From TrEMBL:
It holds the Pfam family YlxR. Gene3D superfamilies: YlxR-like. InterPro entries: YlxR, YlxR-like_sf, YlxR_dom. Residues 6-86 form the YlxR domain. The lineage of its organism: Bacteria, Pseudomonadati, Myxococcota, Polyangia, Nannocystales. This is Predicted RNA-binding protein YlxR, DUF448 family. SUPFAM superfamilies: YlxR-like.
């Protein structure tokens, strides 16, 4: 009905949240160690590294160009409202691809109609990512 809308930190386009890649930031208590990860990795990464997730998220279109622009122009630091280590756009892109594939796989195995609807939504994002790879400028 009323889909939540978010702004891409790369191109500033406002799109439904479900169509965007969500990136989070994990922090050590002293603020020294910082990890930038796909939202899907927050739980495992925070446990593994003893970091806590900031409440803030950065959203980008499923387009490599948007992610690269965000990394280059400080879009992540702005979204996280703090100094952020240099984000490697290629690595983050790959992490998002893997996270998405993993989530789809998990949902497929869990089954059910709610899962099927989510899989459809996530598959659309994955398709957009694959289509976008050729358009890197
Ligand atoms: Zn964008």
């Amino acid at each position: 009905m009323h889909a939540p809308m978010r702004t891409c930190v790369g191109c500033r386009a406002v799109r439904p949240q479900a169509e965007l890649l969500r990136t989070r930031i994990l922090l050590a208590d002293d603020g020294e160690q910082v990890l930038v990860v796909p939202d899907e990795y927050v739980r495992t990464c925070s446990k593994r590294h003893g970091l806590s997730a900031s409440g803030r998220s950065a959203y980008v279109c499923p387009a490599r160009a948007c992610l690269e622009r965000a990394a280059r122009r400080g879009g992540f630091a702005r979204a996280f409202a703090r100094k952020t280590p240099a984000v490697d756009p290629a690595a983050l892109w790959r992490a998002h691809e893997e996270a998405l594939a993993g989530k789809i796989d998990l949902l497929n195995r869990s089954g059910g109609t709610a899962a099927a609807a989510r899989v459809q939504r996530l598959a659309a994002v994955a398709t957009a990512m694959r289509a976008a790879v050729g358009r890197v400028s």
